[in-house]
Design a protein that fits this description.
The structure is a homodimer of 504-residue chains. Chain A has 504 residues and is mostly helical. Chain A folds into three domains: 227 residues, no CATH class; 171 residues, no CATH class; 41 residues. The first copy, chain A, is 75% helix and 1% strand. Chain A is built from 22 helices and two strands. In chain A, strands 1-2 form a two-stranded antiparallel sheet. In chain A, helix 7 crosses helix 8, helix 14 packs antiparallel against helix 19 and helix 17 runs antiparallel to helix 19. In chain A, 47% of the residues are buried. Chains A and B meet through strand 1, helix 1, helix 4, helix 6 and helix 11 of A and strand 1, helix 1, helix 4, helix 6 and helix 11 of B.
Chain lengths: 504, 504
């Protein structure tokens, strides 16, 4: 769903039609191509496959009289496990893919076909998770998964080997580097780390398969554990000098720019887009009245028949608004992020995993709208999902603020003109969802209708946010002046925090 | 699923990490942003919503003993109509969206929120089509659709008005132009043409609703009909001189670059990606064996239980390979296309509409694999879908060849080095699907298994294609020399057609 676009110009003098850049070399390198569209397509595939497994969760039929508390525990737990495992493993595969194509920047037909083969196996992984979740006692599911992962690793290793055999496909920095072998070793190490663990898991699945699950968990968290250990070691005993200098070259290339910001955005867009569009499927399949019923019961008055589905439409629009606005917040945030560190990428993954849960929230609130005993629980689940999706977005910003010189645009750094406004934008959804959650505890009359209307009203809050931020800053200022603090301090505050511009 | 990426460099000296361009203006224009990511997200949403309505078609349960011929006619026809209408209308909406954001190149928060509101209504359109298809005799469905379309048009008009009220958001060419009012008038005309027709359709729906359907059809084909009439008029009575000069400025801006190639690619990627990933959903929901059955019937031997689903897995991989390779052909084609004319865009839409039908092909061939009476019909439907998807790709190329100076890269023009190879690439799928179709007529033993194995073998044909093209060119050459034609002609042929490069 994406294509190479010309880089942001940031100037008013935008050319009306960007001239297409020549993408091919002539002569002997004639079959190489720029890799943007391949990467965009891969991002689309990976983000959809990561998210789409929420559908079996959302479509689990829960009997309206059944207590939601139990049914969530019994029916949904395995399916949610499949969804989360798929999401996390696909994210790991995506990270390896990003790394791989940071090294190989040009492609040809062979690489394109190898990449498609890789994608085919990755899209098959959810099935192996379904087997694991349905038959937790039979090791065949995890064996199948491990085999797929090993084959994916081998294909990616072939891609690396092919790339280093045709060095004109490589990143310029590696191409001119004297120790290409070191880079090759390093990238193979990053790519094959997971598959080697999976190979062990496949072997263990024959005689002691709980060990396989441990190894599987290790695949997901290994990169972050390694980082944590290195970080702790550096904090406690200080960095090793000789090792540091040895790894300097690798450092500048891999670790300083851990994830390509463009691909993080592309992957996130995919998740938000698929979540926003999955909702209409349910509406179209479940909420079109039966034509026979309309004839007999409503005497061909379709509007009357449709009015029964009113709560579902409300739920649909409310869910779309929530998804759309969370994308909007993500978009605003990443406009100002200049570099996505590995930890920010992890937080983004967690946020997206909860975004992927929004179809479940829609399903619950629209199914239990009719004063069923589960109505309050359904709203609470929705609030929790929205809260975690938005609080992880907030956490990305907080993390970025810790290294604001490298990661943030000057305008939103502490003291920047947009700082307070960005803070308000990111804090809005956590506050609203938390507020709604506590309202469900306090008010016994709280209903899904009120909840959905709350969701639909939020965009107006966003539109008024700039004004609200200004007013609250003015109030803060006047309170400060009432307490008669020194003028110097006041002036400092003013220059630091007030967003001096308006929407116009 | 996409994000702004740095434009293709086409040089070996690719910078390792593209420096993020500053996307914001300081000072009074502080709240404006580049629109790339908004457009990428909109493309993702629109392409998914265009394609996703194939799912209700594919999930229609057909009784295995029922004759497919009848059931296709009765059960599927309304759903296929919904799918095609959705696809075409969403494409029209997408075209208007492309035009709109060729005029407005920078966005701010208000425009982003307005655009999301627009997207929300567009994603709701499939529901109105479901109503129309289920209740063809009740005009409420078309009234609802028309109302949505009018509201979408109004929101887009507000976006235009907002853009022209804040001219720094506009395209540079319009910004410096002296008759901005003319441009405003022109873009409003393009955007409101559809909604005005829909408004009429809404009025007609109260007293004579067949007229509404006629107007609806007009919305889809009006731009192309207008073009055709102008083209015919120019051919027969010659272009009007004064009108031509009056429209010159508009011409250079709107008609010379009818659709942004990047957005055509982005929209196509979305369709291919969603089709490739929808398949796994079916596999995960239908082909995980029941745990009780495995215990009783297979004594916990999961592999035996799974072997029953063998044909489904084969069908899955075959369908993924077909989708992936059709994307690969599309990708190869658009690498060499420098400009996408309006007619090429239309052909691309038709191709994508059939690509969207591939999940149906998968469903049919995997459901009727077990020697059912419908097996041959299922294969034939699959062949027809694949054939049309690929023949429209081929037609894009043929159309491009007619104006090859403007639309094609020199390498693939007639006589270019890659011409023959591109021809072979594009002709492969039409030939294979046509061949398979005729095989089903000739051989009584042709089965889905053979069909799927054929599909899986095709990538190897692609890999060997360069060699095959070379061999066939050599054979052509030797045949020509056998017939002892003049050496001069021979030499010409040689320079014209032989692809002089190899994969290495």
């Amino acid at each position: 769903m994406s294509a190479p676009r010309p880089q942001a110009e940031g100037e008013l003098a935008a050319a009306p039609v960007p001239a297409p850049a020549p993408r091919r070399h002539s002569g002997e390198l004639g079959s190489t191509q720029a890799s943007q569209r391949l990467l965009a397509y891969s991002d689309a595939l990976l983000s959809i496959i990561a998210t789409v497994m929420i559908l079996p969760v959302a479509h689990t039929k829960i009997h309206p009289d059944q207590k939601l508390g139990e049914s969530v525990q019994q029916l949904l737990l395995t399916k949610i496990a499949v969804y989360l495992m798929t999401f996390l493993i696909v994210t790991v595969a995506w990270t390896a893919h990003v790394r791989l194509f940071q090294v190989i920047v040009l492609i040809d037909d062979v690489l394109a076909l190898l990449n498609l083969a890789c994608m085919m196996l990755i899209t098959f992984l959810p099935y192996t998770f379904s087997l694991m979740a349905s038959f937790p006692g039979i090791p065949f599911g995890i064996f199948m998964f491990s085999t797929c992962a090993v084959v994916i690793g081998l294909i990616q290793a072939v891609i690396v080997a092919y790339g280093f055999y045709h060095p004109y496909l490589l990143n310029h920095q590696i191409q001119v580097s004297e120790n290409q072998a070191f880079y090759k070793h390093r990238i193979l190490q990053i790519i094959l780390r997971g598959p080697v663990l999976c190979f062990l898991a496949a072997i263990f699945s024959f005689f002691f398969f709980p060990m396989s699950y441990v190894l599987l968990g290790l695949v997901i968290f290994l990169p972050h554990i390694t980082r944590l250990i290195i970080w702790c070691k550096n904090k406690t005993i200080g960095p090793k000098e000789d090792e540091e200098s040895h790894r300097l070259e690798a450092f500048t290339f891999y670790l300083n720019d851990p994830l390509s910001k463009e691909r993080v955005e592309a992957f996130s867009d995919g998740v938000y887009a698929i979540v926003a569009t999955l909702l209409i499927l349910d509406i179209c399949e479940d909420n079109v009245p039966d034509s026979k019923e309309v004839k007999d019961k409503f005497h061909d008055r379709l509007t009357e028949a449709l009015s029964e589905y009113g709560p579902n439409f409300l739920a649909y629009f409310a869910s779309f608004v929530t998804t759309g606005l969370l994308w909007f917040v993500h978009h605003s945030l990443f406009l100002y992020i200049t570099k996505a560190t590995r930890f920010m990428g992890l937080l983004n993954t967690f946020s997206l995993a909860f975004i992927g849960g929004l179809p479940l929230a829609y399903q619950l609130t629209s199914e239990f709208a009719e004063k069923s005993p589960n109505e309050i629980e359904a709203i609470q689940v929705s609030c929790v999902i929205t809260f975690f999706a938005s609080i992880f977005q907030f956490a990305i910003w907080i993390t970025a603020l810790f290294h604001e010189r490298e990661t943030l645009h000057p305008l939103v750094r502490y003291g920047g003109k947009e700082h307070a406004f960005m803070f308000a934008k990111l804090a809005l959804y956590p506050c609203v969802s938390l507020g709604a959650f506590f309202l469900t505890c306090l008010l016994s009359k709280f209903s899904t209708a009120i909840f959905h209307i709350m969701q639909i009203v939020v965009p107006f809050a966003f539109m008024a946010l700039r004004i609200l931020v200004k007013i609250s800053l003015a109030i803060m200022k006047s309170m400060l002046s009432l307490s008669r603090r020194k003028n110097v301090v006041l002036d400092e505050e003013e220059t630091c925090l007030s967003p001096a511009e308006t929407l116009s």
